[in-house]
């Protein structure tokens, strides 16, 4: 948590807020841009990927703009408090990241391509912050849904570290952990597709400008 300018610190399970057995709010049924359901179950041919790369408003837009992505939703993941609220997650006392769940068609966009977008859309060397956004909820994380996703994520982290180091950047602090045992709690309705509802709203997403060596396409910009 962030107290009087001190460095944010993750709570222990004992320090975390108690939470609640059920979600304290409603989640919209459908994506405002893509039109597909937000919550599962999803069609069998689709796969799920979970990413955290700072404020989830701008992060979600990066993924819904990607061809092959079927739906996206934002939420809280990787902490201890069951069914947290936004205010609780931002207090630093739940341990959660601000995450984006990406449901995608692997015949159109690969997991490796989503990893490339993930790495290039933020600075994964900043620890408990992204730019001016400071707090444990803004840390970089990948929560994987299969051994194949885990291996791809680990490989991409190593590849990106090499090019970041060569460009004068520091050590990647991104967590790569199984999604199993780390539930994704969908956020409140007003956070879902926030930048579609509020086109001029805040977006703190910004990368290092260094291309991630995954696939064959160079980074834009």
Q: End-to-end span in angstroms?
A: 34 Å
Rounded to an integer in angstroms, the radius of gyration calculated over CA atoms is 16 Å
Major sheet attributes? 6 strands, mixed
Could you tell me the number of beta strands?
8
Bin the helical content: 10-25%
* Shape designation: globular
Strand order of the largest sheet: 7-6-1-3-2-8
In percent, how much strand structure appears in the residues? 15-25%
Low-confidence stretches: 216-221
Number of helical stretches of at least 4 residues: 5
Order of helices and strands: EHEHEHEEEHEEH
The average pLDDT score comes to: 93
Query: Which structural class matches the secondary elements?
Result: alpha+beta
Give a verbal description of the structure.
This protein has 221 residues and is of the alpha+beta class. 22% of the residues lie in helices and 18% in strands. The chain has five helices and eight strands. The strands form two sheets. A six-stranded mixed β-sheet has the order 7-6-1-3-2-8, with helices on one face. It is globular and about 45 Å long.
């Amino acid at each position: 948590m962030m107290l009087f300018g001190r460095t944010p610190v993750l709570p222990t399970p004992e320090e975390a807020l108690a939470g609640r057995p059920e979600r304290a709010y409603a989640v919209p049924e459908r994506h405002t841009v893509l039109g597909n359901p937000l919550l599962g179950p999803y069609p069998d041919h689709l796969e799920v990927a979970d990413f955290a790369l700072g404020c989830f408003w701008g992060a979600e837009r990066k993924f819904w703009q990607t061809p092959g992505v079927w739906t996206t939703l934002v939420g809280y993941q990787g902490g201890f408090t069951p069914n947290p609220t936004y205010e609780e997650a931002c207090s630093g006392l739940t341990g959660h990241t601000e995450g984006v769940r990406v449901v995608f068609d692997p015949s159109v966009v690969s997991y490796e391509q989503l990893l490339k977008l993930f790495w290039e859309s933020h600075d994964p060397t900043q620890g408990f912050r992204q730019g001016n956004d400071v707090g444990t909820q803004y840390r970089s994380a990948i929560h994987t849904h299969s051994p194949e996703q885990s291996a791809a994520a680990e490989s991409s982290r190593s590849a990106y570290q090499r090019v970041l180091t060569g460009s004068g950047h520091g050590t990647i602090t991104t967590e790569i952990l199984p999604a199993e045992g780390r539930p994704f709690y969908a956020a409140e309705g007003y956070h879902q597709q926030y930048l579609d509802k509020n086109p001029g709203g805040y977006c703190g997403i910004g990368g290092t400008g260094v291309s991630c060596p995954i696939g064959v396409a160079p980074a834009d910009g």
